[in-house]
Design goal:
8-stranded mixed beta sheet; Aminopeptidase; alpha/beta; Alpha-Beta Plaits; 2 domains; 399 residues; elongated; 4-stranded antiparallel beta sheet; binds nickel (II) ion
């Protein structure tokens, strides 16, 4: 099932993962993690390494196979979470205020193992494998957008990402083409009127009444502006106004949450929410100001790369190792890379009830089944070599 050279890398893979697990650093503070990965890459013999951002780094490995070259980027996030580990493992976190509770230690170790495999087997691919060790996935605005802006994906034909997941059994690849995760956004509407005595409403502009109509009108976005087969949520969850029973207030403030899929729906909701708020407020002699706060956008998988992923996994592990899934809710900043380049993001199961690796992510007792890691390495190794096989068959078919 595994190539002999992949099987042979498992001891390093486990050692690296456990080292990272013991030494977690939170988002934007991955200084030692970055230096440690840099030292391992140097040991492996990787010569071309960029550090365009404060933390995080990029390794460029060039194949020597003859043919038409391409550039494939592979990304792993490297940050931990600000929480205390409650596992009694011998390699538990040594840092009381940080823990790898989302599997990013596994992601980074797998990408290092891939670096070693590619470096030692340069004759097996043509072009460039670009390994992106990304900082700060857990803290918006996140590290991905920073790396993209620094040119991390320039010239790359595709970008691949992987997330370990305790929602699936060890070694199961959970796939979906197209939209995988929702946009996670919110907005605040501040409605300003003219306050005054409750008995003289004609002298006032009542922001509370305007805000009430805005709350109701906002519900028409999902029901009347978005196609019925397009899932979206607009929820007004806070309404603040007034200080006394006999004073018409000057101001009312609404806070709302938005979930949507894909960029066009997201933009439509922002536009309509602004239009409704401003127009309804104006009808009441008030002024509304809407502030939009974007979280991570949707992860949208390229369809051709999704079917190539299926082929790669089925060829290596058999179709039984694959599971088609629906949309998932947690945000993921790999989406910024997918806005920049076609790519594919897969989830790989680490759940094993006997080994007690079934706790949810971000839980102080989160653990991952290390047996899953070799699946991830083999998959990335196979996918990288398929995209960089010297024929550019995939890209030319795509064109
Ligand atoms: Ni994560």
């Amino acid at each position: 099932m595994f190539d002999p050279e992949v099987r042979a890398i498992e001891p390093d893979l486990i050692t690296w993962r456990r080292y990272l697990h013991e030494h977690p650093e939170v988002s934007f503070e991955e200084t030692q993690t970055t230096l440690w990965i840099l030292a391992r890459l140097r040991e492996i013999g990787v010569e071309s390494i960029d550090r365009p951002t404060e933390t995080g780094l990029i390794a460029h490995i060039f194949g020597t196979k003859a043919g038409k070259s391409a550039v494939a980027a592979l990304r792993a996030d490297i940050d931990a979470l600000p929480m205390q580990e409650e596992n009694g493992l011998p390699y538990r976190s040594r840092n009381a205020t940080a823990m790898h509770a989302c599997g990013h230690d596994g992601h980074a170790a797998m990408l290092l193992a891939l670096a070693k495999l590619l470096q030692e087997n340069r004759e097996s691919f043509c072009g460039e494998a670009r390994l992106v060790f990304q900082h700060a996935e857990e803290l918006p605005p996140g590290g991905a957008i920073e790396l993209v802006r620094a040119g991390a994906l320039d010239g790359a034909e595709a970008v691949l990402g992987l997330h370990l997941s305790s929602n699936f059994e060890t070694g199961i690849f959970a796939l979906k083409e197209g939209v995988l995760t929702s946009n996670v956004d919110r907005f605040t509407v501040t409605i300003t009127g003219r306050g005054g005595h409750c008995a003289f409403p004609e002298q006032c502009a009542d922001p509370l009444l305007a805000a009430s109509e805005i709350v109701i009108a906002l519900q028409s976005i999902v029901s009347r502006r978005i196609p019925a087969n397009e899932p979206a949520v607009v929820s007004v969850c806070e309404f603040h106004a007034g200080t006394a029973y006999n004073i018409i207030p000057n101001e009312a403030v609404l806070n709302a949450s938005v979930r949507s899929f894909g960029e066009s729906t997201r933009q439509l909701i922002e536009r309509e929410a602004r239009n409704i708020s401003e127009s309804v407020a104006k009808a009441h002699g008030c002024v509304a100001r809407l502030e939009w706060f974007s979280g991570y956008p949707s992860v949208v998988n390229d369809e051709k790369l999704a079917s190539e992923a299926e082929r790669v996994i089925a060829t290596r592990f058999g179709a039984a190792q694959m599971q088609q899934i629906g949309v998932v809710m947690p945000g993921e900043d790999f989406s910024y890379m997918l806005e920049n380049r076609p790519g594919f993001f897969v989830e790989l199961g680490t759940r094993n009830a006997v080994k007690k690796t079934d706790a949810p992510h971000h839980n102080p007792r989160y653990r991952l089944d290390e047996d899953a890691l070799l699946y991830g390495v083999q998959y990335q190794y196979d996918f990288a070599r398929a995209l960089l096989d010297g024929t550019r068959k995939f890209w030319e078919e795509q064109a």
